[in-house]
Specification:
- This protein is of the alpha+beta class.
- The chain folds into two domains: 202 residues, Orthogonal Bundle (Penicillin binding protein transpeptidase fold), CATH 1.10.3810; 398 residues, DD-peptidase/beta-lactamase superfamily (Beta-lactamase).
- The protein is built from 24 helices and 25 strands.
- The strands form nine sheets. The protein has a five-stranded mixed beta sheet. A five-stranded antiparallel beta sheet has the order 7-6-20-19-18, sandwiched between helices.
- Helix 10 packs across helix 12.
- The chain is elongated, with a radius of gyration of 35 Å.
- The N and C termini lie far apart (80 Å).
- One of its GO terms (biological process) is proteolysis.
């Protein structure tokens, strides 16, 4: 590296004059080239007058835009990459000596001699350009680095004027680059400048920048491991990235010619031996390539794509990553972030397998199956399952979708879904929060005046509900009557709607709404709690006429599986900038939402529903763990559901239906995956998918067979039995069967069989579509509402 010398203003002016002369020269003016001061100016560009600044531009290599990478929870499995410029910045020590030699030989052989501007190179280029058809540039590596930084900075600042000036073919631009280059050489060492150039230069088409990305793309190695022939190949590309990119087959012949030119230059400049050059030139370029795929965004993330899309929406919607969405997008695409997520590779794989084995993507029904899993007590979203393939844009093939049905609308999902009887465990939460026993005998009926669900000046967090004189008609499975009396316990075990209605009439809807909110409910479209959304505030919400995303209700079940601890679902665990600084991520805010005795008692009742002969959830019974905590649900013939948990391990919710036309394409009298049934419900289509995943996940995680055996211990204060029957003031008694509420042989109990032909059917008057759902119609109005298991 040459020793730096001082320089007078007159010599600086000579340099400027020489440059202007070279840029403007033509005809007789070429005689100026013989001016002695010009020939003596090669070392002149060393020290400019102090007024020349570097224009406030950050030339630190670490400030360059870099791609961000999203990883699974193991911090190793790559989910996706995001970039405007596909670049990975590396220090010069991590670039092989051959790569350094190759780029200097090709671009600037006097790089280690000049001081930012190579006047000899300029003269040579001028002579070539004037006296021959060959065009040469004459810019040094330093000048090229300056030009690239100015252009990148203008793009980052979204400044079209600066972009124009950074790339215009004018004397002003070249002079500006010269002056900054000289200043650069005063501030940075040669190796720092070479490092900057190697990281900013374009080394391929499709916005491939930087030597590390090029090394990985073309040869599947790191820049530090590049050999002679690989280095020469990459160094040759910068002259014409679109035409010399060797990954494009039609370019390979010319790319080989250019590579060999670099090899000759390396030999001439004594960076390699003749033998090394000849051996390298004799190697066909196609034999040296080991092309690696270039991925940008979620499109190429395979079965991780839906989770990837969820992560992207979380970043775009979170103020932790910038004040505006535009800032957050820029950070994602240019910030070089390392993003570690909550995705469990095993969970996501098994969810996808369960979804597609249950209903193949090409199934003639066109039904969607949507699955979401979350870890109780942490809020960590473990993965999604869906029988669709992800696309970021529109697709005519209905097996593809850009909508993540499993999440809220703001996170890329739809308007939510009614979930039928799978909401019922949370009615029991409300019941116990009101201080009631689950074995209390209730008078039940098939007709309720909505005013019976009034909150009676309830002082909780909910708004008041008063109801009207309108009657809500409600029945049990397949339009059956009711069981009178019946306890909340058996009402949940058997999934009886009429008992749920009686519970609501006793305690009022406000307590029910607050219980939903406490365990994590919010509307999928507005993100409001149920008590803040009048259109959902009706008695029929107790049998699932809500608009909720599968992930939200999975989280509600997670609260039951975590001893009453509710967490906000999270997708991110750690986000690190390229300089190692961590960015705060949205928190789960885990807290004790309901009393653990209530959670344990509800879990007990859910488990009984899977093992009792009259239980509605026998098809959910797990094989690989000792206890099953699950609840099925059916919404008319439009949506079938199942939710449940393995305590402390995983909570999962499954939903099946035709998202685009739930009413026009009912889940009834149809063959699903080649199996015909006149009546499908949650127990016959959603439950098997839930069981398949939960069993396989327990096996994959080596969960002991006794997992959960100590869970679901009911609190005695909620189990007391009374011989009296709680009546509903003003209720109209419909068709009833007066049997003891603890009887196991109840004529209306829905004993499961292999076909579940007696399973309850959830009917409400709402149509539901992922994009145009309208659940605002009061489903209790002048009709019968059925919700089944």
């Amino acid at each position: 590296m040459p020793k730096k010398k001082s320089m007078t203003v007159s010599r600086v002016l000579s340099l400027v004059l020489a440059y202007l002369t070279l840029c403007l020269a033509g005809g007789a003016v070429t005689s100026v080239l013989l001016i002695p001061s010009v020939f003596a100016a090669n070392k002149v560009a060393q020290a400019l007058v102090p007024s020349l600044q570097v224009e406030g531009i950050d030339f630190d290599v670490t400030s360059l835009p870099q791609k961000s990478t999203i990883y699974a929870a193991d911090a190793k499995t790559q989910i996706a990459q995001f970039y405007e410029d596909n670049r990975i910045v590396v220090p010069i020590k991590d670039v092989s000596k051959y790569m350094r030699y190759a780029v200097v030989a090709r671009e600037d052989k006097r790089f280690f001699e000049h001081s930012g501007v190579d006047v000899q190179g300029i003269l040579r280029a001028f002579v070539k350009n004037v006296f021959s058809s060959e065009h040469q540039g004459g810019s040094t590596l330093t000048q090229q680095y300056v030009k690239n930084v100015l252009l990148v900075t203008a793009e980052q600042n979204d400044d079209p004027i600066a972009q124009y000036h950074a790339s215009e073919d004018t004397v002003a631009r070249k002079l500006r680059e010269m002056l900054i280059s000289v200043q650069m050489e005063k501030k940075y060492s040669k190796l720092e400048i070479l490092q900057g150039y190697l990281n900013i230069a374009q080394f391929g088409s499709n916005r491939l920048y930087g030597v590390e990305t090029a090394a990985q793309r073309y040869f599947g190695v790191s820049a530090k491991d590049l050999n002679i022939v690989q280095s020469a190949t990459i160094a040759a590309i910068t002259k014409n990235p679109e035409n010399y990119d060797p990954s494009i087959e039609k370019n390979q012949a010319e790319a080989q010619v250019q590579r060999n030119t670099v090899l000759d230059l390396m030999y001439e400049q004594q960076y390699i031996t003749k033998k090394e050059r000849d051996e390298a030139k004799a190697t066909p370029i196609k034999d040296t390539l080991n092309l690696q795929p270039m991925t940008n965004g979620c499109e190429n993330s395979g079965d991780y794509a839906f989770f990837c899309d969820y992560v992207v929406h979380k970043i775009r919607n979170s103020s932790e990553f910038g004040k505006t969405q535009a800032e957050r997008d820029q950070l994602l695409k240019e910030g070089g972030l390392t993003i570690v997520t909550t995705l469990d590779v095993d969970a996501n794989k098994l969810l996808m397998e369960a979804a597609r084995k249950t209903i193949p993507p090409t199934d003639p029904t066109g039904f969607e199956i949507m699955m979401a899993s979350i870890k109780p007590g942490t809020g960590e979203v473990l993965g999604f399952g869906v029988n669709r393939y992800y696309t970021s844009g529109g697709a005519s093939d209905e097996t593809y979708t850009s909508m993540n049905y499993m999440v809220d609308q703001i996170d890329g999902g739809g308007a939510g879904f009614p979930v039928g009887s799978s909401i019922k465990p949370f009615n029991m939460v409300a019941w116990m929060q009101a201080g009631r026993s689950i074995n209390e005998n209730l008078q039940t009926t098939t007709s309720y005046q909505t005013s019976e669900f009034a909150c009676d000046n309830y002082t909780g967090k909910s708004t008041q509900y008063y109801g009207t004189t309108e009657m809500w008609q409600v029945s049990n499975a397949l339009g059956q009557g009711t069981v009178n009396p019946e306890s909340p316990f058996l009402g949940l075990v058997r999934s009886h709607n009429t008992t749920q209605a009686s519970m609501g009439a006793v305690i009022g809807l406000c307590r029910v709404a607050d219980a939903y909110r406490a365990v994590g409910y919010h509307d999928a479209t507005t993100l409001q709690n149920i008590d803040q959304t009048d259109q959902f505030y009706s008695p029929s919400m107790m049998i699932g006429t809500v608009n909720v995303s599968p992930l939200t209700i999975a989280n509600m079940y997670a609260t039951l599986g975590a001893n009453g601890v509710e967490c906000t679902p999270i997708a991110l665990t750690k986000v690190t900038r390229k300089n190692g600084e961590e960015i705060a991520v949205p928190k789960a805010n885990c807290h004790q939402a309901i009393d653990k005795d209530i959670a344990q008692t509800v879990a007990y009742a859910m488990n009984q529903g899977t093992i009792r002969p009259d239980g509605a959830g026998t098809t959910t019974k797990l094989t690989n763990v000792s206890k099953t905590f699950a609840k099925t649900g059916t919404n008319e013939t439009s949506y079938m559901a199942t939710g449940g948990f393995i305590p402390g391990q995983v909570a999962t919710f499954v939903l099946v239906g035709d998202v685009q036309s739930p009413k026009g394409n009912p889940v009834a009298n149809v063959a699903i995956n080649g199996v015909y049934s006149s009546y499908w419900d949650g127990g016959t289509i959603a439950a098997p998918a839930w069981k398949m995943f939960m069993d396989n996940y327990a096996k994959a995680k080596n969960m002991p067979a006794d997992t959960g055996k100590d869970y679901g211990n009911p609190a005695s204060k909620y189990m007391t039995t009374s011989s009296s029957v709680t009546t509903i003031q003003g209720a109209t008694i419909g068709s009833t069967t007066n049997n003891n509420s603890q009887s196991n042989s109840n004529s209306n109990s829905n004993n499961s069989n292999s076909n579940n032909s007696n399973s309850n059917n959830s009917n409400n008057s709402n149509s539901n579509n992922a994009t145009t759902q309208n659940n605002s119609t009061n489903s209790q109005s002048n009709g019968t509402t059925n919700s089944g298991r």
